[in-house]
Design a protein that fits this description.
Length: 136
């Protein structure tokens, strides 16, 4: 088995999460500036055994695509060029940012630490990945 890489795409920063090789545990990996994302993924795929990439699918409450989906579609075209054989799965990411923030509160992080948007993005990617694992 290979790892599963999850991406919480943002126009400025993108949160990444990954499973262990047995695909049991979802863990935050890092947050990357979006302009450096494809280079980071290329390096990561060259050094790790990744089986699937999961990308968040942002939707409005009425189930329509959110405004950020336009940017994600552009990114997905580049990702397919980078890794044409890699399966890419989309997972509904509604509420992940709110859940990530609540997770930070529940884990006892101070208010200053909770303002770290990079950490929110990484936790959001982890929640997207956990949602995908739960659906398997």
């Amino acid at each position: 088995m290979g790892r599963i890489l999850a991406i919480d795409y943002g126009t400025k920063r993108t949160g990444l999460a990954v499973t262990d090789e047995m695909q049991i545990i979802a863990s935050g990996l890092t947050t990357v500036e979006t302009k450096a994302l494809l280079a980071y993924i290329k390096t990561y795929l060259a050094s790790e055994n990744v089986e699937t990439i999961v990308v968040g699918l942002p939707k409005q409450m009425d189930n329509t695509a959110s405004e950020s989906e336009v940017y994600i579609q552009k990114f997905l075209k580049e990702l397919v060029k980078l890794a044409p054989e890699m399966p890419i799965v989309r997972v509904d990411e509604r509420f992940t940012s709110k859940m990530a923030f609540q997770t930070m509160i529940d884990s006892g992080l101070k208010k200053k630490q909770r303002k770290n948007k990079a950490l929110v993005d990484e936790i959001s990617a982890t929640l997207i990945l956990q949602s995908y694992l739960s659906s398997l």
